[in-house]
Structure formats: C-alpha cells, structure tokens
Amino acid sequence: MEKNGNNHKLRVCVATCNRADYSKLAPIMFGIKAEPQFFELDVVVLGSHLIDDYGNTYRMIEQDDFDIHTRLHTIVRGEDEAAMVESVGLALVKLPDVLNRLKPDIMIVHGDRFDALALATSAALMNIRILHIEGGEVSGTIDDSIRHAITKLAHYHVCCTRSAEQHLIAMCEDHDRILLAGCPSYDKLLSAKNKDYMSIISMWLGEDVKTRDYIVALQHPVTTDIKHSIKMFELTLDALISFNKRTLVLFPNVDAGSKEMVRVMRKKGIEHHPNFRAVKHVPFDQFIQLVAHAGCMIGNSSCGVREVGAFGTPVINLGTRQTGRETGENVLHVRDADTQDKILHALQLQFGKQYPW
Amino acid sequence: MEKNGNNHKLRVCVATCNRADYSKLAPIMFGIKAEPQFFELDVVVLGSHLIDDYGNTYRMIEQDDFDIHTRLHTIVRGEDEAAMVESVGLALVKLPDVLNRLKPDIMIVHGDRFDALALATSAALMNIRILHIEGGEVSGTIDDSIRHAITKLAHYHVCCTRSAEQHLIAMCEDHDRILLAGCPSYDKLLSAKNKDYMSIISMWLGEDVKTRDYIVALQHPVTTDIKHSIKMFELTLDALISFNKRTLVLFPNVDAGSKEMVRVMRKKGIEHHPNFRAVKHVPFDQFIQLVAHAGCMIGNSSCGVREVGAFGTPVINLGTRQTGRETGENVLHVRDADTQDKILHALQLQFGKQYPW
Amino acid sequence: MEKNGNNHKLRVCVATCNRADYSKLAPIMFGIKAEPQFFELDVVVLGSHLIDDYGNTYRMIEQDDFDIHTRLHTIVRGEDEAAMVESVGLALVKLPDVLNRLKPDIMIVHGDRFDALALATSAALMNIRILHIEGGEVSGTIDDSIRHAITKLAHYHVCCTRSAEQHLIAMCEDHDRILLAGCPSYDKLLSAKNKDYMSIISMWLGEDVKTRDYIVALQHPVTTDIKHSIKMFELTLDALISFNKRTLVLFPNVDAGSKEMVRVMRKKGIEHHPNFRAVKHVPFDQFIQLVAHAGCMIGNSSCGVREVGAFGTPVINLGTRQTGRETGENVLHVRDADTQDKILHALQLQFGKQYPW
Amino acid sequence: MEKNGNNHKLRVCVATCNRADYSKLAPIMFGIKAEPQFFELDVVVLGSHLIDDYGNTYRMIEQDDFDIHTRLHTIVRGEDEAAMVESVGLALVKLPDVLNRLKPDIMIVHGDRFDALALATSAALMNIRILHIEGGEVSGTIDDSIRHAITKLAHYHVCCTRSAEQHLIAMCEDHDRILLAGCPSYDKLLSAKNKDYMSIISMWLGEDVKTRDYIVALQHPVTTDIKHSIKMFELTLDALISFNKRTLVLFPNVDAGSKEMVRVMRKKGIEHHPNFRAVKHVPFDQFIQLVAHAGCMIGNSSCGVREVGAFGTPVINLGTRQTGRETGENVLHVRDADTQDKILHALQLQFGKQYPW
Fold first, then answer.
1. Quick check: D224 and C93 CB within 8 A?
2. For the segment D113-172, what is each residue's pLDDT rounded down to a tens digit?
3. Does the keyword DNA-binding apply (chains A, B, C, D) (predicted)?
4. What are the b/e assignments for D116-134, b being 16+ CB within 10 Å?
C-alpha cells in the first residue's frame, strides 16, 4: 500500500447503501469533491440502492454528478434476520477486492445498519482508517449494538449531538478523535427554507392540498420484534384512514419484516385509497419540503426525531425504535402504540400545530 | 422460535474456531454438559480447527467426548488481510442456516479474533443472546477493536480480571450483566500441578532434557504490521539459536502473515536443527506441563502474559501484541525487539529464574 | 460416507427451487414416499420458493405433507445476470454443508435453470450420483447450454420425449442410463379431467366467466435478450387489452428482467383493469383446470408447449424461448412477435379453437 | 454493454487459476498481446496461483510481463470435496463484479478443473462468449464430467487432437465453431530443443546428475477415490526409494486429498532423502528441459501423457486419472498400480529407454 510522500492527496472512500445514509453522506461528499487538491473521492454503492423495489436510489448519486466507482450486489433475498446476516456476509466476501483495488486512506461510514457494520468490519481488518458519522447515539434497540460496535471499530467520529459526544467519550473513545459537527443533513435542511415548495407538494400529494393540511407517514420494521411492529403499522394505517387527511406513505426500508408491512398496505387498500399516496422514494430535497410544510409527520423513522426538528413540524414517534434519542419538543412519543385510538388521539393532538424553529 | 414454558432447558450453542479459544471454552463446555437437566449443548466447529495445516484440532473436541453438531469450512485461503475479511464473510453466509436449525437461546463466544466477530455479528442480528468470554481487556492492537466491538454486540460478559470488569463498565455495559470469573483455563492450570510431567517433557523435547532447562517459543503475526512482526520473529529465532538451549517452537496461528513466518522458520533450518523441535499443536493439558516447567517462555502469545502466570515461569513478551494487558511480575516486556541482542539479553535475564506462584 | 450393507435404503435428496420444478418433482416425491421400505427422502428447498415476491411457494410442499429438511436462502437481489451468477455462487457455498449432513446416495435435479446447475455442480464434485429430469430437450436459448451442462454432470437421465432421448444418446450419454418416462406432470394432468373446474374458474377469473371464454397468459423474460423480451411483453399486453377477453396474467419468474416486466404490467394498469386478474401463483392442480378449459393460453412458458398439449387447449407461443421444443399441433408459434398486430392476429386465430386430445 | 462500431477491438479476458492452465494459456496470451490493433487483453488471476503453498505462481505471469487486472482469492480451505464446491461458489460470487467492470467480448477458459467450471458458468449466464481450450478429451474420470459440462456452456472450442474434435462433434457442438489446433504448449515444447539444459538439470537435481539418468515424478490425487490414490502414491514412493535413482518429486495440486499426499511424503522422509528433491513449482520452460532429458517420468499428470510425448521420454502413467486419453507409444499404463512390485517393474522396463520423437 505505497503512499506517496509530501504531495499525497488523501484517498477517501465513501460507501453508501441506501437512501437514508446517502442523505447524510451527500453533504460530506460534496465537500470532499470541492477540494480536489486535497482529496480523491471513490464512491462505492451497495445494498438497497441497487434494488428496484427500493427505488434504484443509486440514481440519486448519479444525478448529483458523482462517479460511482463500484457497484456491488450485497442483498440476499429472504426478508428475515437470516437474510440480513447473509447480506453482511456477501458484502464482506466482496469488499476486500474493491478495497485492495482502491487502496483508500480512509473510509467514511454512516450510521447503524447491518450494511454499515459490514463496511466497518472490512476496513478495520484491512487496516484502513474509518471515520464514522452519527455514532454515540442511543435509541434503545438492536441498532444501538450495531452502532456501538461500529464505534469500537472506527478511528474517527463525527457526531451530531452533545450527548452523543459524551456517550462516545464514556465508551472510552479518544476525545481528540471526536468531532461534534451536528447532523450533516442540517446544512441542506437549513438552506431549504425559501424554495418553491407548493409545486412539490402538489406533485406528491395532489393539486388541491394546502400546507399544514397533510400528513407524511414513514414507518420501518423493528427487527427485534417484527410481529409487533407489523401490528403497530396496521393500527397506524387504521388511525390514518379514520383521521381522513391527505397522507403520503413511504414504503419501509429493506430490513427483515418490510415485505409483511407492504402486504399490510395492500390489504388496507392504501395504494388505491383516494386520501393516500404510497411511494417508494422521494428525492431528499423534495422530501425536506414535504415534511417542512406537513401538518404532521408520523412513524418511527430517525428522520422524524432528528431532521424534522429543523422545521418545527409536529412529529408522532411510535414505539421504541427511537427510544432514547434526543428529540425536540415537537416530537410526541407514543411508546405503547397498541390501539388505534391511542394513535388517532396523538394525530388529533399534533396535527397542524406549529412549534418554534 | 417457540420456547416451552416452565421446564424449558436452556439451549446453549458454543462455537469454537481454534485451539486457543477451545482451551478457554472447554472448561465451560464440561460444566454445561455436567448439568443436562438445565442445559442442552450444541457445539459448532469452524475456522482453523478444520484445517490440516493447523493440526486438525477439531479432534481435541472429539477426544473430549463432545458431539460436534456442525462443521463449517470458513477460511478463505490467501493469508493476507483480505482473506481474513472474506473468511468472516464466508462464516456469515453460512451461520444463519445453522442457527435457524439449532435455535439456541444463547451463544457463547470467546475472545477477540475475526472468527469471533463473525459469530457475534450473526447472533446479534438474529436476536440470539450472546455471552462473551474475556472481554474488556486492553492490548493496544487491532484485537482491541474487535474485542470491544464484540462486547458491544454481546449481552452478557464473563471477564477475567478486575480491570477488564472496570473497562466493560466504562464502556457502558450494564454491571448486572458482567461476571468477573477469572480466566476459565485457570481451573485446569491449577489442577495440573502434580501430574507426571517428566514423560511429557521427554516426549516433546527429548529424553535428556531437564526441567527449567528448556524454552517454549510461541509467536504470532501482528496483523496491523505484518512486515515488522516477521522481522521480529527472525530476530527471535537468531537469538534462540545463539542462546543454544533446547527449544520447542510452536507454529503460528492462521492470521495474515503466518505463512511468511513459517517460511522464516524453514529458511533458518529450525525444523532440522538439533536444538529445536517445531510442532503445529500440543494438547492443552500437556502444553500446561511444558510451560509450567520451562526455563522460559518467549513470544507474543496471550498465553504467555496470562496463563503462564499461574506457574511463575519467566516470560519474555515481545513487541506490542499484548501491550496494555495486565501481567504478573514474571513477564519481561521487550516492546522494541528490533535487534537480536535485545532479545538475547532478555533470554539471559529471564532463563531459569523462579517467580513465586 | 458409510453405507450399510444389505438392507441399505437408498437415500434420495430432492432439491426444489421454484413452483415450476416442483410441479415436475412432486409426482416423483410422492412415488418415493410411497415406498419407505426402499427409500429415505430428504427435501431441500431453496431459490425463489422462499421469496415473498414469488408467492412463498415452499408452502405448496408443506401442504403436500413433505418434511422440508433444509431451507436455504440462495437468491442475491439485483434482478440482472450478475445476480443470477451470484445466486448460483451462494448456493454452492451453502450446499456442501447440507450434503455432508444428509449424505444422499442420489440427488434428483430437474430442468435447465441456474439453480439446477448449482445443484448438479455441487453433487457432481462431491461424488453424489445425479438423476436429471427432463434433459435432452432443445429450445434454442441459453437454457440449452445449462440443460446440456447439467446432462454432462448427471449420471442418470429421465427424459420426456423420444427426441430428447435421442439427443441424450447423441451427446454420448450411456443408453443404459436413460429412461424415457414422459413428462412427470402428465400423471397429474391426465387424472385431472373430471374435477369440479367451474368453481376454480370462478375463483380465479370471476363469477361470470364461461369455459373456453378466457385467456391464461404466462410470459417470462429471456435472459439472453432482456430488452427485446420486455418489449414483446408490452406488445402482448397491448394485444390482450385490445382483444378484450377476461385474462389471467401470471407474474414472471425470478430471472433477470422480471422486475422490468412487472413494471410494464403496472404501467399498463393491468392490476386494476376490469378484464385482467394478475396473480403471483396458482396452485398447480388448479392451474391445470384453468388451462384445460381456457379459450387460449399465450406466452413463452414451457408449460404452454408441453403440459397444455394434454388438453388440446390452443396455445400461442411467443418468441424464441421454446424454439426447437417438440410441440403438439395445438401450438401456434409467433417467433417474431414484434408488433401488436401479429399477436392480436394470433389471438383471433387460436382463441376458442378445440384441438383433439 | 456498449460496444463501439467499426473499429472495435475485441476485448479478450483470459482467466488463469494455476500453473497447469497457465502453461496452456500463456502461448495464446502472447499471441493476443502481439496484435494490439485487434485485441485488448484483460488478465484475471484466481485460484491456487495466489496461494503460498502452491508456489504463488501468479509471479510467473508477472515475469512474463502481463498486467494482472484482477486478483481474486477463491479457494476455501478444507482440502476435501466440500471445499472444492465452496471454492467454485466463492468464485461465482466474485466474478460478476469483475466481468461487469471489464465487459469482455470473449472469455478464454482452459481445461477441466473446478475453477474452469466457475469461469464458464459465470460467463455463460452473463451472455459473454466463451472459447474453451482442450475440450472433447476423454479421461474416464470426474474431470470428464466437468470438461464436457464446460463444453456445453462454451461457444467456441480449440481442441488438441483429432479424436477430441470428433468427440466434440459427437456431443453436437457445431463443427464451424471447433478449431483443431493441437496442444498450445507444444509450440514452446518444440522450440525448446536446443537450449542449455545441463545447468537446469544441475540446478534442480544436483551437480553430478547425467541426462537420461534421473526421474521426474508428478502425481495428483484422484478426487473420486482419494483414499485409493493416496495408497497408490505411497506405493510409488516406496518403489522409487527401492529403484534408487535421483528423483525430482513435484508436490501435488490443490485438489481434495493433496494435504494427505504431502503427509505421505513427509512420513517417507522424501524431503531429506539424499536421492530425492521435493519442490512445489518448477518454471514451465525449465520443467520442459527436465522431462525432455529424464530417464523416465512417472505419475498421473496429464503432462505425462500429453506434453512429454514431444520428446520421446519414457512415461509411466499410474491408475485411471488419464484413462482414455490418447497417448503416444512412449507411455506405459499401469492401471492397477496396487503393489510396489508392479510399479518397480514398470520403472525397470521404462527407465532410460529412448522413444522416437
């Protein structure tokens, strides 16, 4: 692994697996690309980015004008926990050839999902430095184990909140290697205020929809308790049908249980219900506009408890998937969302409220 | 994963990858097997246990009369870091089928090697409880990253030293889930005192060798700095040749770099040198006798800085592989073992000394 | 691989990957199960049987009351040729552990798909006898290469037609090891005549539909020319919309290109069109009734050119996927199905005709 | 897969797995490289080329001044049949990413080993043309199944003998796509006559050895009957020890059983016996000189029954591994080599004889 002496540019490998991590990595990638005298950027795309059912979101990266150096199929079908493990395995079988070819000085990894663990494991064992984004947070789920395991494999940490920083230090990470930088997607969020949002809202929710008068729903399976999280999703849909407001529902991510959730949507007729619009993927900058002007966001996405705080949009966070995350006052937690009524009541409380931002 | 109510026996899966982890897991496995009213034991064998070059050590497990439920080839050839990552990948592709078949309540994992990370990752993502043996220790190498990552994936911790326990607590593990139990191999060590050791010494080192008058050498590659560790091994052999005492050299483990070290041994003619005996594997109970009565043990094995302390045998610990581990006063650290003279000098200092135990 | 002497039962492993091969293997499996004094049957399920999008067809096997000994996820997501190769690879990484556990005397493999090649390769290299069903046929596509490669790896051949037998002999297979037995699914077909078919037709096509007055469409991607086969599917749907008869459309199989075809169906609104019913899977015995009483079957399924001949139902075979297969006079070939008009014209010619059977 | 129009150079991918296939592929690679106006050459190296125990023979390719575009670890450890299957699987998981990157018009594959089957399978399923070298031969072993399966996956055939050509035609391959070109290594063999061979013989067999007065032994395991082939190797070594001539023994290839054979060599003390020289690898051009001037070659290598015919050196072919291959009159077949005496007798018959060439 010869590194040239003085004028050596830092070779940075950014590996992105899905829509969610790309929204965090993209601002960093733009930053790296803007300094070609210091950095060389290699982009590796894997995971659900390359899967049709998840919207072929690798196209977002092409549209942002990044060269994709390597594409790796890494998802084993099966939609259960076994398939998740096998997918990590598939990534680990394939990544070394790529890393040997690219020879990066550092790899940037985001978050707490199984694909990120594969990336961190391969880089750590191959003696490549790892910069981990958004470590140190605590949500109270299996994601914590993975996020913290990645922290222990990583060498540098860019974290989002004061308490995440403190948690990293508590886990014995070296203070000098932690940067408290805030959430990378906030740059984009904060620069998003004055855009023409009405055409975006019309496009995704229909011509006649007003700001603050629609809902965005985004719920993922909880892999440690799939059955319960599917039940909760069913209750959420029932509550939304009763609540009777125009609602954009995003399909869940690739985790174990997602197929079952899609089946629940079909069973409830969401795809053809006049009040609902069900979509696989909304480009991130448009998604920002949609949540910024929604009457309410509901679900268990980290986006709800994190990014949406930038706009003061009311959020209903269901179940335990984000338990323990720091959230703004705009978030109403419904931890035991086990009846339709509880969820409906939360919708009545939050919908249309305006929190400061 | 139906679990029957009251009379449910705990299904325990013990997965062992090599000679070293088996020496720690065996006492636990005997304990589990002794209580059939409470436990069912499933033994999974993978990694270098199944490889001829590493002594086909799965036979130790058979000789101890355990049923091996599953054998998995998981080592990808290549003897470099890439092959280590791919081997983790291969294990992750294969383990879910096994775990789905065995449906253990808990998996017991030992140590800090790449195979152990594969085991912990698969169990964590499949919602199987993990009991991790010998976490919390600090050695100052890549092993630390892996050991701590496994800690974060594990649910219960059985640790060996007071400071390991404190380090686990510092890393935010729940105190209630940590058991400070000492090193599992100590039971065997301490019960080993009065055996007939002379025949064992004769068998492995020759008829005419006296106690305290031979050396045991066991050196592994350091995967984060392979080149340097091979150089150090070369200097060690030179020093041992000069020192001119009967010496048992064990072949290194399966880590990246081991092939190169074997080549160094060949180049120096160790296999045919009258003073040397080079072997792949010594059964653990015999190994204990050999180190208990040696004039000195040299190398960078964790065994040197840990188990050998039970006998007060002088130990020379070379390089940084065990840096940071707690060691007894019987250990002389030669951190920068970069000349033959330094190592020779250490041999002269330590050989034949008797420390209290 | 100890085999007991005189009273040894033959251990037969049947591995099934999808709806299509199971329809051929099931009659054989029933036969084996009926002779427990001679045979032990192990059933291995892999491939698209275990995938939600393809109807979780492993349930058919459970409903037929076979014990499934092993389930293996073997499909890598990606829906292109690369993913097909990787899926073969995944199967080959996993199958040896299973075969070492089951130690079959013989493995039964059906057909010409990528999963079957994985099965035959693993058995051949592990010195397990292979009985191949439906070899020797010639269709003029990539399937031929795979089918013939499996033939060369196999030891015994059960073929369906006289010309298949002759082709096997021409390829230098030993005549003594070839059994011309006809198509295994014909037993079921021929015993299917007198059942109550009207309720089945009502269930799948609607209350008001009459026999000979509906269409069954089943078209798969052609992996050597995906683009063209998607175009052809689009033209077929257009022709069917124009033709304006009640039509049951089955979703295509897991081959590269299938996702694109599903998208074409969505774009044309087939799922909500009043004349169409789009389904993932019809149980085989019901499917038989549906094609037996259809006005016409259209597509490029081997089922059209083979099984449907048992009923004299008119068939329109599109494109080159079945080129070279022997077919009955009930089949109209439209090799260059490159305009909507050609296909429409074929529908007008064939629909409602009655061929002898 | 865009291909440029008129001036398109043919992109040729040559994939080589080991010393043996490289000796056949190298002359073709030199030929391709000599015509850069027509061809682009991509070299992919995998299999035992990259393994230390097999001599890291990828260095031969570098010494021949070819750029190696991709190196893939594809060998799973285990040295049994299961590991061979898993190695095919590992190659199939990795090759598609490489082929998608290189986008070759044609792939050149040699021979009949498990790695070649992986190459042919991946190319066939990805719609890449395959040129197969040395198909159509018949040896009477498992190699036949693999060789013929590759034939059925391949599109073009370059074969070595008239009867191979006829066998390809018999297997229904298109005559227009078969080129009877002779063995590619013969070019090198025939140009090798006048070199300074004495220094090569001295280097590998010792100073005092005369031409026609030494033996070259090269025996591989037979994977369908490993036990028997190890026994035969033991008898061969006994016979060679009795025969008491200077002998060069090459280590066997990576197939299942090879470890056991190496152990037999160790047990018999071959590595330190004054009459024997045991080596992993001899560069092909030197190997040619050694066999050309040997008193006899013994073993079961295809090289014995094929290349050595170019020099009239006496050959003793043991067992069934090459049964059915066409051989010259210089070859003495000892099919049932089940006693030391039979082999010794053959040595007495053949050693030092001179056949015409």
1. no
2. 999 999 999 999 999 999 999 999 887 777 889 999 999 999 999 998 888 998 898 888
3. no
4. bbbbbbbbbbbebbbbbbb
Residue of B85, B148, B171 lying closest to A121 (CB–CB)? B85
What number of H helices and E strands is found in chain A? Answer: 13, 13
Closest-CA distance of chain A to residue B205, Å? 37
- Measured between beta carbons, the chain C residues lying within 8 angstroms of D100 are 82
Helical spans, DSSP H, in chain B: 19-33, 58-63, 81-102, 114-125, 142-153, 162-170, 185-190, 197-205, 226-243, 258-267, 284-292, 302-305, 340-350
**Which residue of chain C has the CA closest to D149?**
C149
> Which residues of C touch chain B, with CB atoms under 8 Å apart?
70-73, 90, 93-94, 96-98, 100-101
Asked if C51 and A78 come within 8 Å (Cβ–Cβ), the reply is yes
In this structure, are residues C87 and C79 in contact, taking their beta carbons and an 8 Å threshold?
no
B241 vs B248: CA distance, rounded Å: 12
Residue B120 · residue B142 · CB < 8 Å = no
Per-residue pLDDT band at D311 (split at 50, 70, 90): confident
**Residue from B118, B142, B144, B114 nearest B130 by CA:** B118
- Chain D partners (3+ C-beta pairs within 8 A): A, B, C
Alpha helices, H only, C105-251: 114-125, 142-153, 162-170, 185-190, 197-205, 226-243
Query: Which residues from A are below 8 Å from B when comparing CB atoms?
Result: 76, 81-86, 88-97, 99-100, 114, 117, 121-122, 124-127, 142, 145-146, 148-153, 167, 170-172, 223-224
D82 contacts B77? CB cut-off 8 A: no
Look at the pTM and tell me if it is higher than 0.90.
no
With 90 as the cut, is the pLDDT of residue D100 above it? yes
Q: Using an 8 Å Cβ cutoff, are C83 and C115 in contact?
A: no
| Chain B residues with beta carbon closer than 8 angstroms to that of C73 | 96
**Which pLDDT does position A3 carry in this prediction?**
46
Question: ipTM more than 0.90?
Answer: no
**For an interface test with A, which of B94, B107, B145, B224 has the most A Cβ atoms less than 10 Å from its Cβ?**
B145
Predicted confidence (pLDDT) per residue in A228-274, tens digit: 889 999 999 999 999 999 999 998 887 788 888 988 998 898 988 88
Between strands C315-318 and C296-299, the pairing is parallel
Q: Positive or negative, the Cα torsion across B117, B123, B126, B127? A: negative
Backbone angle region of D9, left / alpha / beta, with phi > 0 → left and psi within -120 to 50 → alpha: beta
Choose, out of D51, D77, D87, the residue to mutate when testing the contact with B (most B CBs < 10 Å): D77
D72 contacts in chain A (CB < 8 Å): 97
Low-confidence winner among A179-183, A306-310, B120-124 (lowest mean pLDDT): A306-310
Give D42-93 pLDDT, tens digit per residue. 999 999 999 888 888 999 999 999 999 999 999 999 878 999 999 999 999 9
pLDDT band at residue C320 using 50, 70 and 90 as cut-offs: confident
For the cut 90, the answer to whether the pLDDT of residue C297 exceeds it is: yes
Mean pLDDT (whole number) for A166-175: 88
Structure tokens at B347: 């041999």
Q: How far is C234 from chain A (nearest CA, A)?
A: 19
Contact A52 C259 (CB under 8 A): yes
What is the full DSSP assignment across C109-145?
Answer: EESSSHHHHHHHHHHHHTT-EEEEES-S---SSHHHH
Instruction: Give which of B74, B53, C15 is closest to D87, Cα–Cα.
Output: B74
At B355 the three-state DSSP class reads coil
For residue D69 the two structure tokens come to 């575009």
The candidate with the shortest Cα–Cα distance to B86, out of A119, A90, A146, is A90
